[in-house]
């Protein structure tokens, strides 16, 4: 069988082996591509963690993951926290960062209209923004004061009538008792006279001087006198009690007086519905109503104890384990132009949704956070007392030794 030369085959495949120049070039390109892919992936990860573009932020929001969450000492920040330059320069891996707001101790208290004020309108404001008031001090008046004072006058008049009725009842009972006693004395005297007349008549009848009819009349008179004594004794028995106040009529009148006194005390208490008082001792922060306006549902004014300012910080749940009471805290806000300082006072017991968010529309608002309270020092309190609800960035130094919280 004749052998067909390779040049005579229908397909002439020019396969480049590894030793040919063309094969070596193709091998070098593939090797370079394999090396560049990890480099590009690494650079993309670094740039993505640094700039955190919107797609990466949406990925974290969708998956619930956080940059650096898998490390014991993450250095990446949540996408909705942008550190000031001076804080970023001194950032340590052990620091815990979170959004916070400045508030008075105990938070802001709402001063609302008193219970039962109804449709009353605001009549007068007794304080201004920035005034310091004590607990229970009047801060405003409502226009229902005249009506409530009129109810007090009516209750006082009703009490006076009930008291006069009591005196009248006492006098009537005393007179009735004396009259019953006099009636009994007269009935007993008539009985003695009737019995004496009956004895004389019986003697005369026995001598034949008096007739039988006269004797019967004497006996009937003696029997009527006996019944009169019985009726008088029964009437006097109604007033047999030595204590006049225990008499039924006097007791009813006394109870009516007590009811009138209770009603007067109630309407006097109702006059407090015309006065708005401070629920705590503190400073007036804001006034939300003007005279002539019905008190709004959100309250007439807001106040707080600005003598000790606090900060409520939201910390992601995966970082709370390193936070302890007494650790130093640094708070920075562009509006203040300086740094505030304080210490961790308490750590919340519940995990909730994030309440403080930045202006970034792609920020993760479903993050699970724990709220801690930070007590500002004296110097920081003086500065922050005029910035209630100011949003700041808090950095907790978890590597520092915790100080005792007073």
UniProtKB/TrEMBL annotation:
Q: What is this protein called?
A: HlyD family efflux transporter periplasmic adaptor subunit
- Return the InterPro entries for the record: ABC_heterocyst_DevB, UPF0194_transport
Location relative to the cell: Cell envelope
The domain of life is Bacteria
* Alphabetized UniProt keyword annotations: Coiled coil, Membrane, Transmembrane, Transmembrane helix
Q: What is the lineage of its organism?
A: Bacteria, Pseudomonadati, Pseudomonadota, Alphaproteobacteria, Hyphomicrobiales
Q: Where is the signal peptide?
A: none
State whether keyword Transcription applies: no
The main place the protein resides is other
Q: Which residues form a coiled coil?
A: 170-204
> Is Transmembrane there in the keyword field?
yes
- List the transmembrane segments: 31-51
Q: Which NCBIfam families match?
A: heterocyst_DevB
């Amino acid at each position: 069988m004749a052998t067909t030369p390779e040049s005579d085959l229908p397909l002439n495949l020019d396969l480049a082996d590894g030793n040919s120049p063309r094969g070596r070039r193709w091998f070098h390109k593939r090797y370079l591509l394999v090396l560049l892919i990890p480099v590009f992936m690494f650079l993309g990860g670094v740039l993505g963690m640094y700039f955190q573009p919107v797609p990466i932020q949406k990925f974290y929001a969708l998956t619930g993951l956080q940059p650096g969450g898998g490390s014991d000492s993450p250095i990446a920040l949540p996408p909705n926290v942008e550190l000031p330059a001076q804080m970023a320069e001194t950032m340590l891996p052990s620091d815990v960062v979170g959004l916070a707001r400045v508030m008075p101790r105990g938070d802001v208290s709402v001063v609302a209209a008193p219970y039962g004020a109804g449709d009353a309108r605001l009549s007068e404001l007794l304080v201004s923004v920035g005034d310091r008031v004590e607990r229970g001090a009047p801060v405003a008046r409502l226009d229902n004061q005249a009506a409530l004072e009129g109810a007090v006058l009516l209750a006082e008049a009703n009490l006076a009538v009930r008291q006069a009725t009591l005196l009248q009842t006492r006098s009537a009972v005393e007179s009735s008792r004396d009259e019953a006693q006099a009636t009994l004395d007269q009935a007993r005297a008539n009985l003695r006279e009737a019995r004496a007349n009956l004895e004389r008549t019986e003697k005369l009848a026995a001598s034949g001087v008096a007739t039988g009819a006269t004797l019967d009349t004497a006996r009937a008179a003696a029997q009527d006198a006996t019944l009169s004594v019985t009726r008088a004794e029964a009437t006097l028995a109604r007033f047999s009690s030595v204590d006049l106040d225990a008499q039924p009529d006097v007791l009813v009148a006394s109870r009516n007086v007590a009811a009138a006194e209770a009603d007067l005390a109630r309407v006097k208490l109702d006059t407090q519905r015309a006065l708005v008082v401070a629920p705590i001792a503190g400073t007036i922060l804001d006034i939300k109503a003007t005279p002539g306006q019905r008190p709004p549902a959100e309250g007439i004014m807001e106040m707080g104890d600005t003598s000790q300012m606090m900060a409520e910080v939201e910390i992601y749940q995966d970082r709370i384990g390193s936070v302890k009471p007494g650790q130093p805290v640094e708070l920075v806000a562009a509006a203040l132009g300086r740094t505030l300082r304080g210490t961790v006072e308490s750590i919340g017991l519940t995990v909730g949704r994030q309440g403080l968010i930045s202006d970034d529309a792609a920020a993760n608002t479903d993050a699970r956070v724990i709220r801690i309270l930070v007590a500002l020092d004296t110097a920081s309190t003086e500065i922050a007392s005029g910035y209630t609800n100011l949003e700041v960035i808090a950095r907790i130094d978890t590597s520092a030794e915790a100080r005792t919280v007073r």
